[in-house]
Amino acid sequence: MAELRGTTVETSIIRVVDGDTVAVTILGREEKLRLSHLDTEESNHGSDKPVTPWGKKAKERAAQLLPAGSPVTLEFAGNEPLAVCLERYRDNFGRLLVWLHQDGQDFQERMIAEGYSPYFNKYGYADFESHHDRYLAAERTAQTAHLGVWNQVEVNGSEQRNYALLGVWWTLRAELIAAYRAFRAARPELLNSRLHYAELLDQAKQGEDAIVFTELRTYTPVGQNKAIVDIGSKAQPFKLFLPDVEGDEGQRLLRLLDGRYLPKDDHHVRRSYAYVRGRLQLFRDEPEVVVSSAAQITDAPPR
Asked: Residue 226's CB: how many other CB atoms inside 10 A?
């Protein structure tokens, strides 16, 4: 039986959307859940990932384990009050990020052990060490038995996703996030653009300086010599505003972003995560940080 470490809430299943996504009701409102540390293959079109036979099997398995109306316990990755958790722990599309438990069993652990998903650490290792250890052991169980995603030819007819390559990139990202968590424990002023979005918004309204740990995903020119770098989140929209990309310093900044941080695709990986220091401001009610020098973007927080 898995030990629950974070804030919990009891609810019941409305429906299974995918192998790693379900709908429930919380406080009278329907919520979609993106189950943390699962990344099953797709059963529905609409993603940049391919729909696969094993993705459809993952959805079938989730529906078998989680029939409509079945009671479940949701666990958040922190110990804040429920109202704070409902605001803080959401993915790029606004879905709640939680672990799901049923009858004392960790649903994520079971799906990983059965080969329906790798231990998905692209957005960080499981926050609690006991969860991390269980998910890592579950993944090794599936790998040694050559189950599911670890046997692509058997379950899909051909390799649909290169999990060995993806795993290297995910682990790099997870290590960067683990380092941030350690820095944050000693320096609570460091903000995470997703977890501390409300605080970021407040500081942007005041035009304060801040150090923000954030993911850098896309670069878009705006106007004649300006650009923005987006983190790729609809639920927590945060941007870097580059006021001059044509000058010498602006060009150095662009070369740094291109060579070190901005990902190209799964075969040309970059660090993605960085610490950005600068003045916060609002643009169309969304927070952004003004970046005019490459020195403002670093791998570790400036002292």
From this structure: 15
- Half-sphere exposure at residue 124, Cβ-oriented, CA atoms within 13 angstroms: 21
CA distance between the termini of the chain: 43
What gap in Å lies between CA 266 and CA 56, rounded to an integer?
23
Output the pLDDT for position 44.
82
Task: Tell me the C-alpha distance between 128 and 78, whole Å.
Answer: 9
CA distance 250 to 276: 15
Report the C-alpha gap between 66 and 291 in whole angstroms.
Answer: 47
Asked if pLDDT for residue 268 goes beyond 80, the answer is no
Residue with tokens 């929209």: 237
CA proximity to 14, closest of 100, 85, 97: 100
CATH topology of 8-161 equal to that of 190-298?
yes
CA pair distance 25, 176, nearest whole angstrom: 34
Name the residue type at position 216: L
User: How many angstroms separate the CA atoms of 101 and 133, rounded?
Assistant: 17
Match 């699962």 to its residue by tokens.
Answer: 38
> What CATH architecture is 190-298?
Beta Barrel (2.40)
What is the predicted pLDDT for the residue at 266? Answer: 54
If pLDDT is split at 50, 70 and 90, which confidence band does 77 have? very high
Task: Identify each DSSP E strand in 36-95 by its residue range.
Answer: 71-75
Domain 8-161 has CATH 3.30.420.40: no
Check whether 299 has a pLDDT greater than 80: yes
Which residues are 81's β-sheet partners?
none
